[in-house]
Fold these 2 entries.
Entry 1:
Amino acid sequence: MSDVPLVLPLLIPLTTAAVSLLAWRRTVLHRVLAVAGAAALLGAGLALLDFVWRGGICATQAGAWPAPFGITLVADLFSAIMVVLAGVVGLTVVLFSLASMDRGREAFGYYPLVHVLLLGVCGAFLTGDLFNLYVWFEVMLMASFVLVVLGGERPQLHGGIKYVTLNLVSSALFLAAVGILYGLTGTLNLADLARKLDGMNQTSTVTAVGMLFLVAFGIKAAVFPLFFWLPASYHTPPGAVSALFAGLLTKVGVYALIRVFTLLFVREAAFTHPLMLALSGLTMVTGVLGAIAQDEFRRVLSFLHIGQIGYMTMGLALAGLTDSPSLAVLALAGSIFYIAHHIAAMTNLFLVSSVARRLCGTFELKRQGGLYRTQPLLAVLFLIPALSLGGMPPLSGFFAKLSLVQAALGAGQYVIVAAALVVGLLTLFSVTKIWAEAFWKPSPEAAGGGPAGLTSRQKRVLLVPIWGLAAMTVTIGLGAEAVFRLTTRAAEQLLHREEYIRVVLGGPP
Amino acid sequence: MATLLAVVIGCLYAAGIYMMLRRSLFKLILGLVLLSHGANLLIFTVGGLTRGRPPVVPPGAAAPAAPTADPLPQSLILTAIVIGFAVLAFSLALFHRGYQTFGSDDPDDLKASDR
């Protein structure tokens, strides 16, 4: 039964969401189911990772239709790592929601929606079929549309309209690209596409389609110059929803970019990958400069988030630019390491910002303050992901940046090295600004006593997921060697496409 | 036929993008609809146009007679239409709610959150 680990990450969120929907308005049951489902998803993700680590890439054909005709589910190490990370984000956000989500949103199906979102995300990670990827994207988007506007506050509606519009444009482009690719090759199976595209002469047409994919996934991943929807919408929904989006949604775009540009569009690397490298550098710089200009906790984080996306695509671009296979593996392994580090750190920062808002009554940094004095524990828990984001050793961000910079030095791309290091420094500067405003300076409302804080029981529940993610950041940092061995193997699998193609389409080993 | 459809698709895309650039939420939705129709028609056209040859296996034969229409693009479009319909219904509701809340159809008037 080799299919079970592959199907479970889809079945668990689907079942959780479906059962929750049947028990509409029974909020307590929703909460129990949501926590159990998210924990089970994390367990299933770890089981899948273990299965793929020991047995290599595995694939299963839905409905037993043979490979290029039916829909293939396939998991290599990269997919498995992403499913585990989705489980981590799902569990922490659901736990955080228990104490932070208001009754109204819970009654209107908040928890089932989170699980539908997780379903779409896991589906996108596990599918081996391009059109199926489109469908999973839509599942994920639909859930995220509702989550963005659930509650219907003014800023939410405003952010939601922008978010929906930009994502629909991106979906239309994605769909058109899928259609053209089908017209060119007559197949939609990723492995079959890789094989057929290798034998084609019309490289310029194929590259044009690749550019369509770059734009479509670039909008979803929020790379320069397509990121404008992100800072316009991520600071509007409740804190837990922001954290969920920051953890997962853009990463699905990055995942799709890495997948299609390591599997399908590899022949014109001399054209596509320098372009991607330039986009990565510009994404980093604009993101971090935007963050410096902001004065609102979550808007600073949104722009920092964009800056970090640049590092992930930087590894992908470097992998296609270097001639040496070992450098390509190093670059891509750095990218995957960066994704893992980023998901833990960024989700955590959004969660901390939400707690800070509960304590100070506002997200405006100017009106926050004094948190170090009243909440020293929270301050430490903020510093861990914040310093990690800036790349301080021994936290996870340092090793992620180190491998990317090493790869860039090896490939002789000194401009991007400079950009990566300067942006790291500026990232540190922006998180220091948050630290100075929200935590260090005396509270501006100290005389008035400030708004009512949290009960100690609420605080305990809110801090559990933050502790968990901080521990993950420290563990990835201290156990960097083991994690790096994992991501290196994942990168090797991505770069040796023959194995992926062989497992999906069958054939002699 | 393919040339004609190519022109139609081009017009749909052009009209869709023009509508999206207008200063009105309602026209923005119309633009999105035109854009997704353009994409659907594009899949249909690049999938190859074959007239009057349904891919149906005649009784007694193992495969349909040689030049048949490819059913896959049509099923892809069908899926895309269904998804597009759901998304459109949602965005109509959202934009209507936005219109009620902000009292304006002009995207520039939605200044509640973004500077």
Entry 2:
Amino acid sequence: MRKVLVLTEAKAGNLRGVSLEALTAAHRIAEGGEIIAVAIGNEATHYANVLGKYGARKIYIIGNKELDIYTTDAYSQALRQVINAEEPDAILMPHTAIGKDLAPRIAARYGLGLVSDVIDVQVENGDVIFTRPIYSGKAFEKKKVISGIPFATVRPNNIPVEGFNGTIEIVHFNVEIKDLRTIVKEVVRKTTGNVDLSEAKVVISGGRGVKSAEGFKPLQELADILEGAVGASRGACDAEYCDYSLQIGQTGKVVTPDLYIACGISGAIQHLAGMSNAKIVVAINKDPEAPIFQVADYGIVGDLFEVVPLLTEEFKKVLANA
Amino acid sequence: MNIIVLIKQTFDTEEKIIVKNGDICQDGVNFIINPYDEFAIEEAIKLRDLHSGEVTVITIGPERAENSLRTALAIGADKAIIVDSEDHDLDEYSIAKVLATVIKDREFDLILCGNMGVDYGSGQVGPRLAEELNIAQITTITYMEINGDTAIIERDVEGDKELVEVSLPILVTAQQGLNEPRYPSLPGIMKAKKKPIERLEIDELDIEDDIEAKTTVMETFFPPQKNAGRILKGDLKVQITELANLLRNEAKVL
């Protein structure tokens, strides 16, 4: 039995899906032990019950004003006060901007090992084994912590969520936060649409073949029908057809959707690094020799401006009849 | 300004990954400077040229890592340090401890590194080191300006942008878009041959804590081979209907 601490996360007041995935992973690690969720921000009272349906039995809600916007110091101080109070046997965080910034800092503070960006967690013979991608998803490694408690960050969209209902205890935790070294002066939201690219189940992606910013419109329409998000290759971003926030690839975002539709994307290795673990890949490209067809489950050789609108119509019909 | 840049070597992106005896095979592999570290080097050179000062590049690695240091020196760094890592089993915890030992008694205003290595992608060393040195960190930066003691920084947060203000000394990690890394020039390459490379051995460092790795790799493996996909044929309208059908009934993602 292990007491597992999970940092959950919300964006714009909405609980992020990866929080539930982390709770599912925590349930495996706990082996019957207590799962404690930490929720930061006062709107956490709205979703505390949801956390309880996915395994959390004790929920710390920390609402200090200083935590309204993430800074390393504020979150670190808050989380450390919970860790010191609970002394968990394992810690999990989402592998998001916050997790990437905070987890290693906490690990260093407590002299802990940390396994980042895990796509699976299993307990074998009492050992917690983490699986994670390496070399941009060309290979995988299984790792474990050999000294100190297991600590990992969980990649969104990889651990199938399981519900575990039970009673919950909510703790409105008073923490002291002081001496913050960083001031966030401004936050500019550049990501449009309601679906977070790294958590989307469906991604419609555009490459240089999109030819212009307007060229993304048919892709957005297809994404809307499928409740998905729009992404792009680096080529499209470099050509200024879209913002870099859409870039998927080795130096962009990594996505693990159920369905990835690549439109006018040639399929360079650096792009594949960002989507190679998508469940199903569909490629649409004028060039039958484009490398993307090597990794696609299904391909259509054609002009995306002809194909994509037709797909939108067809999917609309199929979903309406469902 | 005293600026430190942390770099590492990674496989060239195009390299095929081969596992031999349970480990990633390095024979015949072409090593490059981790792409994200290139942004760090470039930014350091730009700031040094603007504010005057010195750029020191540090790497922990085997002998071949000296090539990357020479490249960084050729791009414009002033000094380099290599800490020999051969015969040591180091993870992110260990590396941060070693770097902290090497850096803590040196003068620095700013430490830059890439936000992650494209090989193992854990992105831990920068933040760990900042904690060891008890300095502020700003990760995934896309713009930085130094005014005296203050840094004004823009960072990328999953596509959104944040404008942040922080006092030096700090550690920052570089995100794509921070700058356009320059190539070393021929004069730069010539000058680099005379620039100093300090060579340190881990066993000779006075490291406070134990540096044994806290994590271990149990297995390295490849994803299951996907079945070859298929390119649909026939009239476009027919292909469309077929695709929708396949996605719904075969792939079950619709």
